[in-house]
Amino acid sequence: MDMAKTENWDVIVKWWDQGMVFHRFNRDIVTPFSSDEMAEQVEEFFSNRVTPSFVRILKQSIEKIQIKARWIDKIRQEESLIPRLTRGLTRTPVET
User: Fold this and answer.
1) DSSP secondary structure letter of residue 93
2) Interval 71-93 mean pLDDT
3) Which of 32, 37, 41 lies closest to 64 in space, CA to CA?
4) Cα–Cα distance between 92 and 62 in angstroms, integer?
5) What sign does the CA torsion over 19, 21, 27, 29 have?
6) How far apart are CA 91 and CA 33, in angstroms?
7) H or E, element range at 36
8) Could you tell me the pTM of the whole model?
9) CA-CA distances (angstroms) from residue 41 to 26, 47, 50, 66, 79?
């Protein structure tokens, strides 16, 4: 996670409080991440900072990160198939 945001967590909480604006702020900061590593970091960071009213939003944000990470992995797997699939298209036909 962005260390500036983690180091300033107390200031962010004080400024945004624990209300709905805070939930939206955090959701918008967390959900753009797209790797399993970032999902783990988010979960670890909030493990002792989560409040009961924030649990659901945090869980949904982590799930969104994990979904995007899986989607990216699938795209990477498909990209690795492209050279093999196009190899046959670039060969010159055998004359008989």
Assistant:
1) P
2) 71
3) 32
4) 49
5) negative
6) 41
7) helix 36-46
8) 0.67
9) 14, 10, 14, 12, 27
What digits encode the pLDDT tens for the residues 23-59? 777 778 888 888 999 999 989 988 888 778 778 888 8
What is the CB neighbour count within 10 angstroms for residue 15?
11
Tokens of 67: 């979904």
First vs last C-alpha separation in the chain: 61
**Could you tell me if 16 and 25 are in contact, meaning their C-beta atoms sit under 8 angstroms apart?**
yes
For residue 76, which amino acid is it? Answer: R
**Encoded tokens for 39:** 């999902």
Is residue 34 within 8 A of residue 69, CB to CB? The reply is yes
